[in-house]
């Protein structure tokens, strides 16, 4: 296999005749030059290795040239379903002279990982894309909307550019006390790493408040960091801002070292991915759980107060399911809610369709819209509507706003979009508060 694009042209062997020894009779047989020409080594001349050499020179970029064109990755790529994409297509474009560093294709991959699941050659877009994107950051082709998010994260510690002082404002109207470690630093069992969208986005805050009520009702000993929390930055890393990610790792590790907790629980599958894969690789290991993994074993202790009478369908987050293997905890919770019937979409579990928000896609909606026939979130909402579900339930903070917008854009306003925790909270209330 060529490494680093340094292909060595085979030496053509041209002989008038060749003599071979039969392995059966032991006799020597003379073959003519015609035989020899039949097996003449072929040298492909319509492309050179330069494009692959440049990408393979970037740490993480090595595997693009391992592609041998089987095409398995294309039908599972969510971007190809709304456009013209996939690792095989990228490989061919680089092979025929496209400069990936400055091409729009560089920013379309959502790092969903579905191609890597099926690729026999382990062409790893989750390593290739961050590597090439990082190299592209010094140029002028970074989409402005993504650049804006990088700057907000640098300045404010969150992708929404909000003041850190407002991090815990959502907790004021949770209806239960929410402990902030800076004010009460006593040891705690669960540290909830709230992350950006549950902290600042109005619909994310609804889910955060629901979590607060459910966790408190279950008697969980939990607390948050409040204004000291910054994003863990995994999506910024996959979008190419490795330097920013490394700085965020150091900030988070320093903050976390101040407190005595048993487990970190987060609602954000991207943060969860960072905690279980990226942080340990940098010497910071924690007992990390997604919130559905915290609650699923406790489901028998929940005191339900009403039936919801809903048909729901569930969208597997790429970074909880395919990337980290958790498919059951969300389903355990959904199926436990009284009156809720779960219907699966065709594409689910390991073949779940991406919402378009991963790998920086969360902040590239305008850019992606210019290069695809429809947004991935719109495609997914159509699939959800086809099941006849009343509700599309999710457990990634990116998705409530993405799918709500997509439902409006595709004429499926009747499809309600909410986090699993909101349905649990709803079924635990008696309805007298108007919920
Ligand atoms: S599945 Fe892998 S080897 Fe096959 S075409 Fe795609 S990237 Fe290439
Ligand atoms: S990671 Fe997902 S979006 Fe990116 S090329 Fe592979 S299948 Fe397509």
Considering the chains and any ligands shown, give keywords for the structure.
single chain; Fumarate Reductase Iron-sulfur Protein, Chain B, domain 2; Rossmann fold; 4-stranded parallel sheet; 37% helix; elongated; binds iron/sulfur cluster
Assigned CATH class of the largest domain: Mainly Alpha
How much β-strand is present in the residues?
Answer: 5-15%
Radius of gyration: 26 Å
Average pLDDT confidence is 93
Question: What would you call the structural class?
Answer: alpha/beta
As laid out across the biggest beta sheet, the strand order is 4-3-5-6
Amino- and carboxy-terminal Cα gap: 61 Å
Give the tally of structural domains.
3
**Uncertain stretches:** none
Most strands sheet = 4 strands, parallel
- What is the fold-level CATH name, i.e. the topology of the largest domain? Fumarate Reductase Iron-sulfur Protein, Chain B, domain 2
Number of helices: 18
Small ligands present: iron/sulfur cluster
SSE arrangement, N to C: EEHHHHHHHEHHEHHEHEHEHEHHEHEH
Roughly how much helix do the residues carry, as a percent range?
Answer: 25-40%
